[in-house]
Amino acid sequence: xxxxxxxxxxxxxxxxxxxxxxxxxxxxxxxxxxxxxxxxxxxxxxxxxxxxxxxxxxxxxxxxxxxxxxxxxxxxxxxxxxxxxxxxxxxxxxxxxxxxxxxxxxxxxxxxxx
Amino acid sequence: xxxxxxxxxxxxxxxxxxxxxxxxxxxxxxxxxxxxxxxxxxxxxxxxxxxxxxxxxxxxxxxxxxxxxxxxxxxxxxxxxxxxxxxxxxxxxxxxxxxxxxxxxxxxxxxxxx
Lengths: 114, 114
Known about the structure:
The structure is a homodimer. In chain A, 48% of the residues lie in helices and 12% in strands. The first copy, chain A, is an alpha+beta fold. Chain A has a three-stranded antiparallel sheet with strand order 1-3-2. In chain A, strand 2 (82-87) and strand 3 (90-95) form a beta hairpin. In chain A, helix 3 (55-62) crosses helix 4. The longest helix of chain A has 13 residues, at 21-33. Chain A starts with 20 loop residues before the first helix and ends in an 8-residue tail after the last helix. At the A-B interface, helix 1, helix 2 and helix 5 of A face helix 1, helix 2 and helix 5 of B.
């Protein structure tokens, strides 16, 4: 789809019976996308917002410069966690529903899988 | 307890209603512990093993040197994810049950909390 990154499709759950090197790398990549306080706060904001959030709102909320916010939004979008929608001059972001499911499955060490 | 790191106690779920800067950092730190393919494979091995695993088993399984394996095991233990038990000259590792629960709760964006 136009303007969308590919969904998370490659990583395997931490509790997968067999985990090859490629899957381990993809899973580590997904966790790496969340291994930053600013990105955790962006995801938290989106998780607790009723609708898409304008990129312009993160700058004051996080106390970060616009290029830094853009970098974090790009990283999260590339990891397949966010959906980006252009509205005029601003981009709006929301959590991808499939990413939410996938992250919970990957982090579930109790054995439930996707 | 002797020989144990503190459990994961500080990080907040990604979907927490309010997430302060300290909690965001702790949550990012937890994800950072899993943002490496070797550490993902260690956790995967422990998640699929019936009992504690000797540190000596990871070296051949991961194709990494002993110091590198030790570094990864230390990082995971410090993050509160692993329990370390000394048996003679070798250390044995297992997943902490509370960490398993905590990780699933932190990564659950669907709203369920700890």
